[in-house]
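re: ur question from yesterday

yeah so i grabbed the chain u mentioned. its 242 aa long if i counted rite. heres the sequnce exactly as i have it in my notes:
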Amino acid sequence: MPPTEIDMNRLPRHIAIIMDGNGRWAKRHGLSTAEGHEAGAKSVRTAIETCRKLGIEALTLYAFSTENWLRPKAEIAALFDLLSKYVRLELDDINKEDIRIQIMGRREGLAEETLADLDLCMEETKNNKSLLVNVAVNYGSRREITDAARAIAKQAAAGTLNPDDIDEECFARHLYVPDFPELDFMIRTSGEMRVSNFMLWQFSYAEFIPMRVLWPDFRGRHLRQAIATFQSRQRRFGGRQA
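ran it thru and got these structure tokens back, copy pasting raw so excuse formatting
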């Protein structure tokens, strides 16, 4: 049996979640894919509320990847309509709960209305401090790493950055969201074992915790179970236990 008790003195600082299984959940219940995403939005609220109550510093959610553009146009439209709807409906509560929203990903390709909603949410919550919620939209980790390398190369070519000063800390400062805590562990729901081009740089020494539950069925107890599993592991960071 997986551990279930949480040590409140050893909480992770930063959790990431690949929210997988909306389509399978919808099919299982005889519903449309759009209805599956709608049900998954409720689990987003659950994850955010649970993290805030526990005192987790940061939560990153994989909402829409660069590869998701290959999905049917109707599904993509429904996803972005849902994202805008969520922002408009939840913004007051997000502010009341002192939650800061940050968006991670490329702006290119996103509709102006979507960008306006996301920018409003970031601006309205920028001073909140109880929980940092990082939403990956139009995000791909290989693209993030490529963009960081390009920005560094331009600075080096312009003479504003000495190539000898390029190290891991320098590279990390050029990622999309450089000011979040180090990633502690990543959850993927639906039982899949892939990280799917998500936070490859940040994931280097994080723990991976797959869970069989489909995302629309994800509840606070599942997040607590994942935290307990994380706390039960011995993290060596490439070293050897004495």
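noticed a couple things. The radius of gyration is 18 Å. also The chain has one domain: 14-140+182-231.
anyway ttyl
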